[in-house]
Design a protein that fits this description.
By secondary structure, the chain is mainly beta. It is 14% helix and 36% strand.
Length: 1051
Amino acid sequence: MDESYQHPLVGTPPLSTINSPAPCDIQTNLRAGADHVASSTLRYEQQEGDSKAFRGRSKSLAWTSFHSPRLPVDYQFGPELNTTTGVPYKARSWEPTLELAIKAIVSIKASHVRSFDTETSGGYTATGFIVNAEKGIILTNRHVVSPAPIVAQAVLTNYEEVDLEPVYRDPVHDFGFMRFDPSKVKFMELHEIELSPERAKVGLDIRVVGNDAGEKLSILAGTLARLDRRAPEYGIGEYNDFNTFYLQAASGTSGGSSGSPVLDIDGHAVALNAGGATKASSSYYLPLDRIKRALHYVEKGQQVPRGTLQTEFEYLPYNEVRRLGLKAHVEEKVRVRFPDETGMLVVRSLLPKGPADNILMPGDIIIGCNGRMVPHFIALFEIIDDAVDKTITLTISRGKHVQDVKVTVQDLHSITPSRFAEIGGGVVHDLSYQLARSYSQPVGGVYVATSGHMLASASAWRKSIIVSVNNIPTPNLDEFIKAMQSLSDGARVPIRFYSLHKAYKDKVMIMHVDRHWHKFRVAERNDLTGLWEYTEMPPPPPNPSYQPATATLPPLDASMELAHKLLPSFVAIDFYLPYLVDGMKATQFYGTGYIVSTNPPLLVCDRDTIPISLGDVLITFANSIIIPGKILMLHPIYNYVLVTYDPALIGDTPVRAIEFSDKVLSQGDEVYFTSMGSDHAISSKKTTVSNISNIGTRECSPPRWRAMNVEGIKVDDSSNSQGGLLSTEDGKIQGLWLSYSSQNDKGKDISFMSGLSASLVRPAVEKFLSGDKNLVFKTLDVEFWTMRIAAARSLGLTDEWVRKVEQSGSTRHTLLYVLSILDERSAAAKMLHVGDVVLSINGKVVTRMSDLMGIREQGHDVAMVILRDGKELELNVPMSEFSAYETRRVIGWQGALIQRPYKAVLEQVRNVPTGVYVSCTLYGSPASNVLRPGVWIVEVNGQPVEDLDSFLAVVHAHEAEMTRRRRPSYIPPVRRSPADQQLKFTDEDVLRTDDADDDDDNNDEGYVRIKTVSRNETVRVAALKLDLHYWDTWQLIRDDSTVCGWACTDA
């Protein structure tokens, strides 16, 4: 294919636009005045009888029943011929038509609140136009109405906003209807646009009016060039229209114009804008024939009958049909019967296990249906749509043989899903006809619309089909729900699935069942309200998820005595995050852990394996047994975490706690390096400490914990490993080989390996073993770095201090200086400045990072001598306290994850705002449209927010006010008497102060005002439209009684 097509939904990020024209509000009976159009032309153009000849148009030029060409609607016969120029026609003006039409066109802003079928969650803009002003029915594209649950609003031409309810989306063709409450429109009279598919013809001058490229109103001119173009294709796995002709014109519409009316000069809609080519100015419009039929059902509140054979037809010209075996005498009869046609319908493809499977074949030529000749799509589907669940007879030509076949018409709505299950943060539903056709798969199976937390643990990503769960077949959504209801929370079960783009290859993975982080519920679409109504599933069965088991370690070669001794101390750790908080960008982590105690059970790992406290910890012993772990402590300063587990679950599996050495490693020391490779094979070798130097990490975006003020151990030939232990020859541990996380100068996440001295880990372990579980850590709230003596001399360092450094016995002749302040609110920030050179702490000369370790075990403040601006100062600097858990509570509100600002955020802001911190926003949520992660919410509706409790109090008070509101006393102009509609207001009337708080004033349309402050102190006020149906308020609270250490509750 030599041209590519722009999919109607342009762009993946939230707030994208849709490629179709903007909405247009036009009256049903739009007519130009008699002084503009000669009565003879009007009679000729609007004859009822002749219009039937164009309903089945399938060629580029339409003719009347008398075979005379129809005259363009935008020209009229003048009373006199202009003999000077010889121009016999007088051009009519589009101005009165567009002036009226614009009142019927609306701009649509919507969000997919959940991923579903071909759609992913997120916001977009589009266009629609009113086709029934009395009932508030708007026509737009199917990919705008969307099969997914959506929340949408329409903005009228006078910038009034009304809520929209999706009432119908066609399963195949690119049109749908939305509804609004006309009584909510206060300041303008509504207009509607009449649908006139019979007016479309080649050469017709048109205007496409709508929300083009995000503009509120754009008017694009064009001329219809084709009426029989094949439906554009937007790509495999995307929504695609088929079994219909499209109209084509060179109007060059772009994103956001989806759903725009294609108008003629009389203000009639002749087509619906749907898509366009990305490499050309061509636009593609959907004919209105089937749309007009569907509108009659929608106006009556009835289901639109739609039938299917699960077969795609294509319209081929006679010369190509001839090659498929069409006999000459059959072709002659078709040509005589339909002289305007240029081809016939042919079976292009059909789905396996569909109603036409083994009955029709690709290449079959369709001659008739139920005794009627069907030369084009409209004629065929007029019969099929009215024959749902009935048997029809198709007359086909297969090769040289003409024959009749009987096919039962299937209800198209029955293979278009209207339910989904929400479990483990993911969404699954029955595979739709759209996707099945795209991948040539049978309709059926459980489709993963978004994987979420639970399915991602088994790598069952979007566009996967789940075949079975825990060896229970799941041919449909109901069977999947039954299988999941039988599983207890935390169970690890096999799941069989395949990806649609590799349907020939099944995968079997282990899934970690999640019933504690996310709700398990089923949603079903209600077309009367436009909402998807939820049904909560019962709680999981109480049976235990894990049974005790025993494993043995593999034998090692006799030469690997040290590895054999240390192997029982190694475990593998997997960590899964349910939500992106505390600056996280990924949801799955893995690494190596080391057992430091068996009674009580304790193990240690790095903070690149378990970066935060919110998540599921899974520990693998002996490469055989997987059990859950619980986080006891994340060290706020050093790169390690303490985790516990239930020893009863590993039975008699050999485990051994490491034994710490009293000797601290120095440069040049020989050490034994025992490590675990990526294939979980252990290795051991003798090596040398090549260097002990500062660990350097960058500030991350989004901000997250990083190692600082610590030294790392480097060894020769460290090899590629996931982690390891640095030990003496007899196996006493001198250091842990850990992974450190940071970012490079391009903002890309990186990690590197380095050794951490055992002397930094041992104190915390010993406190836990002594029963002290409420650990509090003290340190200075600044980041240090080292400076050469030469640089310090330039800053005013005296010779006396140089001699003190040289006589200190340190292996490094360097000094520390303040690189950055980590919290501008801390006591240390009030006394220390960036650039201060540290000469001594508590009377001891400080030359390297390891010298800071001693002060962390002392009192509340430290005595420091610093060099600032060439002067020596003596200061008593208070230390800050850090707990083993920083984040203890997270609130989910309107799709925003809100928490108390954590330490890594504070180092990147100068003046810390008072409020709550937005850590993440979920796609498709109200928050994703107006809030950015990384800002503070400081006010809601003018009420100050100080912490999480005050935030909840303010938003709940507003929600209660919304439900309490009475019918507003304000009467809008459109519902006043004609005399009252002409009220005049002076400037004084408008500018009069008004302090009254009207509880019944609903002019805010359900929006709440939010004031935010960013890290660079930018202040913004945004309006967020509350959605309490799809986005309820919940919270995660630290709870030591649960396995994961957290509890999810309503807030």
